[in-house]
Amino acid sequence: MATQRPCRFFSPAPRTASPSPPPDKHLYNYLVVLAFILNHLNPKSTWRARLVALVSERTPDQLKRMAFPADWHQRNVWVNPPREPAAVSGLESTLRDALRRHAAAEGVTVADAHTAILRAALLPVTTA
Fold first, then answer.
1. Global pTM?
2. If 81 and its partner were Cys, which of 35, 39, 110, 128 is the partner (CB 3.0–4.6 Å)?
């Protein structure tokens, strides 16, 4: 009977490494991306204004822990967000290229890869 050899592609993790990487606690970064995308999808949305009102109620210490810069309320994303589609063309091309690479790696069409990603994103998470 043959003995199993360790996989040569992966080495064991160092014993001093943490079991998982630390989570990104910079909520501000995520909110900027959401505001940018939502503004592109629906410029008439009130989400950004409601978020600004909600965040304005927080203390400076709370904002600092969420990685909000001191002048966050004066930045363009909250005051004067872009309205032109050209403003997000870089993001669109980046996402399109990533989808093409994913499809090529999986050996499927771009349409099939897109459908699979949407299904995965829309299906509820289940636990076994």
1. 0.47
2. 39
